[in-house]
Amino acid sequence: MSNTNGLPAEITAEQIPIVPHLEAPGDAPQTSIRRRVIRLAWPMIGESFLQTLLGIVDTILVAGLGVAALAGVGTAMNVTFILIGAMMALTVGASVLVAQAVGAKEYVVANQFAKQAIILAILISLPISLLGFIFGAPVIALFGLEPDASNIALEYLHVTVGTIAVLTVMLLASSVLRGAGNSRTPLFVTIVVNLINLGLTYGLIYGHFGLPALGAIGSAWGTSIARLLGAIVLVAILWRGSDGIRLAGLFGWRPQFGVVRDVLRIGVPAALEEVIVIVAFAALTPIVAGLGTDVVAAHRAVISILSFSFLPGIGFGLAATALVAQSIGAQNTTEARAITTEAARWALIWMGGIGLLFLIFASNIMQIFNPSPAMLIAGTASIQVMALIQPCWAGTFVYGGALRGIGDTRTPFLVSGGMMWVVVGLAYVVMHFYPSLPAVWSTFLVAGPFEVWLLRRAWLRSVNQ
């Protein structure tokens, strides 16, 4: 016999965790929707920033070793980002299913989803690590690096891919906690991970603090060890119990293919979307390459700036996913609509404000990168174009996140992944008529409004059925 989620119903009273008071969807009268959205979103914004900062710190520390080390590590990171996107399948699927179970107050079911996702993370990570060792060299060869940079890239990739299970478990544990409504704990753990990473990476690169001097590969080991410690802490917190989720006990660890199927059904489209968007952004680089080295450097700078402008949208999008999933679990679509509206409003305020700052201070922002005159001109104009599309991106993050909260990851995959490649096609065409970096970025002004309209339309249709 099984429950409605396809999980075994052989559950005894002692297997049910002691659950603290959770601010579930029914608590709206006590705590306003606005406070719930903001309180869940701001730690997610901070956590996303800190995850981005890990790579930036590694890059800065490696820069002291020379151009070859910087090029090698940067190339390996590009490959790693794609792998991280693929592993997002587990984190999105687990977060949504845990949040829906918490919203329905089915905490044993939520625990089952969390345990099965962790088992799946380990099982999937093993073949990915093996494939990374087998195909790492041919993949790195595609980038056409000099031999010394290529060797560094391959060694860095082997360490990163070999420890991909650590990163996946850390991201997954954070996602489970967010699904249960706890975004502060992952933030605090990520702060500690960043501090450990700073000391370990510096020590392992240059041989300080009694550590061996490993050169550029030291940054890979430092980050992996820091993430391992973070993963251990997060799993320990979940093992003891937090916000209704408790992993302790033998029950629920045996692989259950029905649960795994549910996790992948929601997570795989989200993972494909992430990979497609990353690859599409990468495809823009060869399109602008014919404009010269200075313009390519400006393009990379604009993408770096863009990653920071996305942080508020990511935070409110993740908050929408978790809170909408809880509301759907509680069968409260009215509150799901209200949560999405509130998240969209605040994402618009934050990203609209960032866009205004970009318009005013675009030149000053580009000066941070010590640009050449040609790089300054191209980059400044492109940042100003990027500023105009910020409000659309705010809606894209939130409505996509809300759709994921109801378990629909296919629509964001088709819409956002498809529109990103529309941008690539438009950029290719534009370069033949008006070859300039601002013109390439202007293609987002065409695709962005259409993308957010499609996602909002799909969202309203889903909750009004």
SSE string, helices as H and strands as E: HHHHHHHHHHHHHH
Q: Identify the overall geometry.
A: globular
Q: Please indicate the percent range of residues in DSSP E strands (runs of 2 or more).
A: under 5%
Put simply, the count of helices is 14
Number of strands: 0
Low-confidence blocks of residues: 1-30
Total count of domains: 2
Largest sheet: none
Written overview of the protein:
The chain is mainly alpha-helical. The chain folds into two domains: 31-255, no CATH class; 266-465, no CATH class. It is built from 14 helices and no strands. The chain has helices at residues 33-63, 67-103, 107-141, 147-162, 164-179, 184-206, 217-240, 257-288, 293-309, 311-329, 333-367, 373-405, 410-433, 437-463. Helix 2 packs antiparallel against helix 8. The two termini are 31 Å apart. Mean pLDDT is 85; it is low at 1-30.
Short description:
The chain is mainly alpha-helical and about 475 residues long.
Task: For this entry, give a set of tags.
465 residues, single chain, 2 domains
Give the SSE map.
Layout: H1 33-63, H2 67-103, H3 107-141, H4 147-162, H5 164-179, H6 184-206, H7 217-240, H8 257-288, H9 293-309, H10 311-329, H11 333-367, H12 373-405, H13 410-433, H14 437-463
Helix pairs in contact: 1-2, 1-6, 1-10, 1-11, 2-3, 2-4, 2-5, 2-8, 2-10, 3-4, 3-5, 4-7, 5-7, 6-7, 8-13, 9-11, 9-12, 10-11, 10-12, 11-12, 12-13, 12-14, 13-14
